[in-house]
Amino acid sequence: MLRTAVIGLGRIGWSYHVPQIVAHEKLSLCAVVDTSTDRLAEAKEKYGVEGYTDMMEMISAAKPNLVVICTPTHLHAAQSIAAMEAGVDVFLDKPMAKDLSECHAIQEAMERTGRKLMVYQPHRVMPETVALKAVLAENLIGDVYMYKRYVSNYVRRNDWQAMLKYGGGMLNNYGAHYIDQALYLLGSDEEAENIHCIRYRMASLGDADDVVKIVIETKSRKTIDVDINQATKASLPLFVVYGRYGNIIHTRLSDGRPGFKVDYLQPEELKKISLSEDLAAAGRKYAPDAAAELPWKVKEFAVADFSKVNFYDYCYEYFSQGKESFIPVEQTIHLMSIIDTCRNQSDIFA
Ligand SMILES: NC(=O)c1ccc[n+]([C@@H]2O[C@H](COP(=O)([O-])OP(=O)(O)OC[C@H]3O[C@@H](n4cnc5c(N)ncnc54)[C@H](O)[C@@H]3O)[C@@H](O)[C@H]2O)c1
C-alpha cells in the first residue's frame, strides 16, 4: 500500500484526490493537512483520518510515502521542495508552480534529493482526450497542421485565483491544462518555437487574467491555437483539428451524442489535376472540382465510447512500481516555459 497524505482540502483536494485515494485498492489515505481545522474535522468525521495544520509535523508523525499537494499555486514550490527534502515523493496538482524559476527549483530539488515528482494534468486522461487521440491515430485527415481549442464560461471569480500574487489567472490555471493537452495530443515530441499570447481581465475581480489567447507554432510547423475565455456566454466548437485532407470537429453527432466528426478525403480517390499557367482560368472556375463534388467521407466517434483513465493507476505505477512517469517532469517544465513566455510577453488589458 502506498501511504498517501493530501495537503489542501479545497475544491480539488477534497472533491477529487481524497475520494480517489480512498477508493484505490493500492493506496491508503494516511493523513490530511489543511490550515482550516474545520476541514480537518470534516475529514476525520468522513474518513476517520488524522489531520494536521502543518505539513512537516504530519510527515514526521504519519510517515507517508507520497504527499499530494493541492494548495493554492504560490505554495506549490516551497511545499514540494520541503516534502522531497524530508524524503517523501510528491504528486503535485497543476500548475506546477507560480512561475518558471520556481519550477526549476522543484526540478533541482528532485535531482538533489533523488525523490520522484509528477504533476497532475487531468486533461490527459479525460474521455475527450482519449477519444481524440484515438481519432488522430487513425490518420484520416492527413498531415495535421492546425489544432484549435476553445474553452468558455462567464465567471466573476473573486477567490485567490483572481490574484497574480497567488499564482492565479487563467494563463496559469487553465493554460496549464489546455496547452498541455494540445502538446500531448499532437505528440510528445512537439516543441513550441514561436509563441504569442494576449490577455485580458474582463469579468473577474482582482488583477489576474480571465481571457487568454495563445498561439504556438511548433518546431514541426503545426499551429496550436488556444482560446480560454472566462468572460463570455458564446459557445464555439471545443476542438477543431485541420489536416491536409480533412478536419475533425467536436460536435453533436448524427445520433445526438457529443463526439468527434471527421470529414476527410482519400487522396487516391481525387481525380488527377495539373497546375495551369493559363492567365484565363478555364471555364471561369478556380478549381476543377467544387467542394460539394469532392468524394468526402464522414466518420463519427462518440466520446461516450471511450473511457477516462484512472490517473491514480499511473501514480501507483510510477511512485511504487518503478515505472516511467506518465508525465515526465521535462514535459511539465516545457509546458511551464511556454506559459512563462506567454506571461512575459503579454500585459493584461483590463
Ligand atoms: N487538476 C485540476 O483539475 C484542478 C482543479 C482545481 C484546482 N486545481 C489546482 O489545485 C490547487 C488548489 O486549488 P483549489 O481550487 O482546490 O483551491 P481551494 O481554494 O478550493 O482550496 C485550497 C485549500 O488549501 C488550504 N490551504 C491554504 N493554505 C494552506 C497551507 N499552507 N497548508 C495546507 N493547506 C492550505 C485551504 O484551506 C483550502 O482548503 C491549485 O493549484 C489549482 O490550480 C487543479
What would you say this structure looks like, in words?
The longest helix is centred in the last third of the chain and has 17 residues, at 329-345. The radius of gyration is 23 Å and the shape is elongated. It is 32% helix and 25% strand. Helix 8 crosses helix 10. The strands form two sheets. A nine-stranded mixed β-sheet has the order 14-13-12-11-7-10-9-8-15, covered by helices on one side. The protein has a six-stranded parallel β-sheet with strand order 3-2-1-4-5-6, sandwiched between helices. It is an alpha/beta fold and 350 residues long. 38% of the residues are buried. The N and C termini lie far apart (50 Å). Strand 12 (246-252) and strand 13 (258-264) form a beta hairpin. The chain folds into two domains: 2-120 and 310-328, Rossmann fold (3-Layer(aba) Sandwich); 127-308, Dihydrodipicolinate Reductase, domain 2 (2-Layer Sandwich), CATH 3.30.360. The structure holds nicotinamide-adenine-dinucleotide (NAD).
> How would you sum up the major sheet?
9 strands, mixed
The secondary-structure class comes to: alpha/beta
Secondary-structure element order, N to C: EHEHEHEHEHEHEHHEEEEEEEHHE
The CATH H-level superfamily of the largest domain is Dihydrodipicolinate Reductase, domain 2
Count of individual domains: 2
Determine the number of helices (DSSP H or I, runs of at least 4 residues). Answer: 10
What assembly state would you assign to the polypeptide chains in this entry? Answer: single chain
The CATH class of the largest domain is Alpha Beta
Backbone CA Rg: 23 Å
Number of strands: 15
Helix content: 25-40%
What CATH calls the topology of the largest domain is Dihydrodipicolinate Reductase, domain 2
- How would you describe the shape? elongated
Strand content: 25-35%
Average pLDDT taken over every residue: 96
Regions with little confidence, pLDDT below 50 for 5+ residues: none
Unique ligands: nicotinamide-adenine-dinucleotide
End-to-end Cα distance, whole Å, is 50 Å
* CATH architecture name of the largest domain: 2-Layer Sandwich
Sheet with most strands: strand arrangement: 14-13-12-11-7-10-9-8-15
